Amino acid sequence: MGDFEQSWYRRRTSRWQDWPARDLIELKQRQGTRISVVIPARNEERTVAGVVGAAGVGLPFQLAAFGVASAAGLVLVRPIAMRHIKQPPALRTGTAALVGRSAIVMEEVNEHSGRVRIEGEEWSSRPYLDESLVIPVGTKVDVMQIKGATALVYPRE
Description:
By secondary structure, the chain is α+β, with helices and mostly antiparallel strands. The chain is built from four helices and five strands. The mean pLDDT is 81.
């Protein structure tokens, strides 16, 4: 595998430990998107081959059993996957459409006050989660939540 392929694979591959449930929930709420989690069959080949092998049959029959089990898994899972793929994303309107957008700080944002410009409109704002956070003028932030007429923002990294 070349350097380009390895780099591509590293950027797009993660382990379950890389995505704590809290981070997934926050990401879902911030972007208003659906997060699909693929739960692979754990050691499917070992399980099927082990059960068939324990029956005392040869390698060709074990391979055939594995193929049948894999095909059955696809037949059962594919309709569910296709339903999710074809379903259009929910249309967000009003203040919900602003969540996940970027904004620019126009007036220093702190726990008591602040102003940001979101898509040409100025909004009052406060820091998201960390009330002690102070965000200086000119900083690019992400809109995490809208509470009333106040945008809760967090600086981009």
